[in-house]
Amino acid sequence: MKQKFNCPLLLIIFAAIFVPPTDVAAETRYSYESAGKVYRYTVEVSGNNYNFEFDAAPASDAEQLNAAVQVLQSIYRDASIDSQNRQPYIRERARCSMFEAGLYDYTFCVFPNDFSPEKKDRFRGFVTQMPNWKWMVVWNLLPALLVFGAIFFFTRKSKGAG
Question: What is the pLDDT of residues 30-57, one digit of tens each?
Fold first, then answer.
């Protein structure tokens, strides 16, 4: 008796094995330590963004920059984030910085405290991960070049053999 080939079942098994998990922060409470002081913060998923909120704001701009890198590394687990290579900008009154990394660029935005006089010391905002040109080359152009190279190689080989 012949065994019937079950293609949908194999597709589900291969998808479960080879599809990478999404970069979802498993924990929601984190801490950042600077100059002997511990700053606790929470992270929540909001669509493509991750919202963060510190219990108390780091005092200086340098500490806030280090806290930004800590938040990005704790959420996305990417050690290639470079705190020196950043581009600051303003986006809808939020102070933002774009950090470059290996295959992704990361945006870190801090909301202004102008609208809440009683909470002037809060430090909250959102972070986003975006693919950069290196990701585009590795995941789109390189496979396309390999496919076109294989087609070219096999058509030349078949013409030479005939």
Answer: 888 888 889 999 999 988 899 999 988 8
C-alpha 75: how far from chain center: 8
Residue entry with tokens 């005092």? 59
Residue type for 98, please? M
Neighbouring CB atoms inside 10 A of 28's CB total 10
Alpha-carbon Rg for the chain in angstroms: 23
Q: Count of residues for the chain?
A: 162
Distance CA 42, CA 28 (A): 5
**What secondary structure does DSSP assign to the chain, as a single string?**
-PPPP-HHHHHHHHHHHHSPPP---S-SEEEEEETTEEEEEEEEEETTEEEEEESS--SSHHHHHHHHHHHHHHHH--TT--SSSEEEEEETTEEEEEEE-SSEEEEEEE---TT-GGGTT-EEEEEEEEE-HHHHIIIIIHHHHHHHHHHHHHHHHHHHH-
Written as six digits, the tokens of 44 are 């929540």
Rounded to whole angstroms, how far apart are CA atoms 32 and 58? 9
Which sequence spans correspond to the domains of the chain?
19-131, 133-162
Between CA 90 and CA 110 the distance in angstroms is 10
At residue 7, the pLDDT reads 54
